[in-house]
Amino acid sequence: MKISDTNNLIGFTVSAILEFGFPVAKHLSRTAISKGITMNVMKYALLSMSLMIHVGCSQKTPVNERPAQIDNLQSSVDNSHDHSVAGHAHGAGPHDGTIVDWGGGKYHVEFTVDHDKQEGTAYILGPDEKTPTPITAEEIQLAITDPAMEVTLKAAPQEGDPEGSASRYIGNHEKLGVVQEYAGTITGLIDDTPYSGDFAEVAHDH
């Protein structure tokens, strides 16, 4: 390679690096021009600079990497149990009835209807929506929106309920003979604490 070609190659390479704003490259180019640094020296210098740039870039944290703390927080939120009226979804109860939430999940009430008997039954359940949970209330109240009615459900203890408490409440009303999906509210008093929950039956195969 001719000396003029070598000089042109060095000048082109250094100029290209200068476009990226590296102060070291700028200093190297000036020194090469003023003192006539050989082609081999120039190659080693440029190779060293390239390695330094590569190592520096490889140590940077990827921009798109998601912090572990966010993943953990999201997992915590996803696994939380929403007891709000809108977010607390229920399946059918042990007696294939509609589940009502009392006290943010502390108690649940399963509501069933026997249309032939014109009878409504409420089962008091625990947080798992399955286990009978006797309470000392003598009665609880059922209010249906359509057809409008109010029914007092009296304590009807099940086998195994302690004396003076009940996990089942039963009441009758002629309008309960209407075959339809009911919506309404069930209220009661447990240890002087009032509880209330709304419900809406969903059509299903009988």
Could you give a short description of this structure?
By secondary structure, the chain is an alpha+beta fold. It has helices at 3-18, 23-35, 39-58, 68-79, and strands spanning 98-102, 107-114, 119-125, 139-144, 149-155, 168-172, 183-190, 193-200.
Fraction of residues in helix: 25-40%
Shape: globular
Give the CATH class of the largest domain. Mainly Beta
Proportion of beta-strand residues: 25-35%
N-C termini distance: 95 Å
In angstroms, what is the radius of gyration? 39 Å
**What is the total tally of β strands?**
8
Order of helices and strands: HHHHEEEEEEEE
Query: How do the strands line up in the largest sheet?
Result: 1-2-3-6-5-4-7-8
The tally of helices reads: 4
Mean pLDDT across all amino acids: 74
Poorly predicted parts:
24-29, 31-39, 67-90
Give the biggest sheet: 8 strands, antiparallel
Tell me the CATH architecture of the largest domain: Sandwich
In total, how many domains does the architecture comprise? 2
Region (Disordered): 76-95
General description of the model:
By secondary structure, this protein is an alpha+beta fold. It folds into 2 domains: 3-58, no CATH class; 98-200, Immunoglobulin-like (Sandwich). The protein is built from 4 helices and 8 strands. A hairpin with a 4-residue loop joins β2 (107-114) and β3 (119-125). Residues 76-95 are annotated as: Disordered.
